[in-house]
Every structure is written in C-alpha cells, then in structure tokens.
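hey team, just a heads up i'm posting the complex here instead of the shared drive bc the drive is being weird again. everything in one block, sequence lines first with there labels, then the predicted structure for the whole assembly after. its two chains so it's a bit long, scroll down
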Amino acid sequence: MNLTGWEAVFFWVFAICAIFAGLLTVMARNAVHSALFLISSLVSVAALFILLHAEFIAGVQILVYVGGVMVLFLFVIMLVNVGAEERGRDEIFNHPRQVGASLIFCFLLVGGLLFAVNKGYQGLRTRDEAKLVQGAEDRINQEKSLSRSGTGTTKITVDTESVAQSLYRYASLPFEIASVLLLVAIIGSVMLARTLKQEVSADDVAPEELPEELRRHPEVGKVEVGT
Amino acid sequence: MILTVFAFVVQEASGGVLSQMKESAKHPDLSKFLVIGAILFIIGVAGVLTRRNIIVIFMSIELILNAANLNFIAFSRYLQETGNVNALAGQIFAVFVIVVAAAEAAIGLGIVIALYRNKETIWVDEIDLLKW
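-- predicted structure starts here --
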C-alpha cells in the first residue's frame, strides 16, 4: 500500500495538519476555537481516508462529524459557555500535579505505542511479495475496466458499492442494532435536556419534590398558573 | 586524522540513515498511518486527562475515536492488497464507530446541558457531587 508521488506529498501535508490541529484543539483557551481546530483535524483525517481509498468513509466523516456532531458541539458551547467566557483568565488545565502525572502517562503511552507499531510492523513486512505485486496488478486492471462517469472526466469506482455489499452482507444485524442505538440516543438526549417547565408540563416531576422545585424556580409556577 | 576519519564515519552513517529516511518518507506505508493514528490518540488522551472544560474533554474523545478509525481504515487498505476476502470489514467497523460517536456526543451534550442547569459550571473539577 505504498503511496507514491503526489499521494506521498498530500499524505505528509494532511498528516501534519491533523496532528497540529489536534494539538491546538487541546491547547486552545476558547472552546469555540477548540471546536474549529477539531473540525480542521477531522477534515484532514478525512483526506487521509481518501488517500487510503476509503472515499465513502471520508464522505461519511465529513457529513456526520463536521456537518452534524460539530454543529451540535458549537450549539452547546454557545448555550453553556457564556458565564465561563466572562470569567476570562481562568485556568484551562487541571492542577499542575494532575497535569504532570497525566503527561508522564502520555509519554509512556507514546513510547509504548511507537515501540509496538515498530515491532508489529516488522512482523507484517515478512509477506509474500509476489502476491502483493499480483494484487496491485489486479487492482490496476480493475480500475482500467471501470466505466466512465456522466461527465466523462472520471471513472465510476466500485469502492462504495463494495462497502455497501459488505455492510449489508456481513453486518446487517449490527446495522439494525445501530439504528436502535440511535433511537435510544435521540430519546435520551431529549429527556436529558428538558427544562423544569417542560418536565412540569409533561407531569414528570415527583409530587413530593414539586413544591420544593417550584420554590427554587418561581417563574415555572407563574407560567403554570398563567396557562 | 582521527578527527577526519570520525567525521567521515559520522557523515557516512548519517547519510545512510538520512537517505533511508528520505526513501521511506517518499513512500509512506502502513506504519506511517499507524504512527499518525497513535499520535492523534495520545493527543486525545492528554486532552481528556488535563483539560477542565467538559466540552473540550468530549472533543478529545472524538479525536481518540477518530484515531481508532484511521487505524481501522489503514489496516483495511493493507488487507485489500493481500487479497483478503472480507478486507472491507475495517471500513464497516469505522462506520459503526462513527455512529456510536454521534450517539455518544448527543447523550453527552444532553448531560452537559442538564449539569449546567443544576450546577452552573462546566469545569470538571467543580462537578464533584459523587466524590466522598
């Protein structure tokens, strides 16, 4: 799977972008800046996915993460972060001792992971070269035989098609389970983010706690009396 | 003379290593992708462990999941070239990781909003209700 030529150049550009944007995500003082850096990191990783011939996953990554999850993050930051922003010069990291301990842990992790990748990759390199060459030739022949797209400038790849076949053939049960998971997530987040007023109007507050809650938040009681 | 020999040896050795590194940089392979994934993972772990803002902690978790996705897809590509029958399983798993990450973000941010309503804070060291 060695990349060559421009692919290698783009690999380094996007890899360095992803790492720096990731670092800045963790280092930025303002949470909105963090979110924007995380978006650029995710886009860079999507570009790496394209270099790995996973166009469908790259598209999903951009649509779901950048288009969905990060917008949700930005909304929550704007709902929640007003008071924290006003406090201004607050410390953004934990106490120095905790930071020191976790950084030591992280450096151990760096060493361990790099060692493991190095060792494991040495094992992976002992493989059948003839088979690899054959595989690459097969792939090139396959790509040559692809049909032209509507505009005639590119060829229609079968990558997404094979992903779909693999998804529905080997992973149809997890697919259904994922749909149930998403349903649970929708209902759960709606339940969690309700205000007291909405809970009262849905009659979902314990009767013995209701007077206490109303005393703490008088505006809810007023609204109820009004309606 | 010893110095010149030493300098020559150093030059030779570094030249050899350098050219080797240059060669491997020109042709990034599986290990490069794995290293990038590992670095992103560690940045995410550092963010989770050191930051105080709970939303940034969630973002760091997204970074960790993304690093795992990068590994899955790199290995999927590697297996495609070895002619594995179900080489695309890595990409399928990456889709499921994205689904779970989206669900986790929705629930987590719902919890953050509920927490902010009750405690008026998003700093994790001030949220110590379960600490004894």
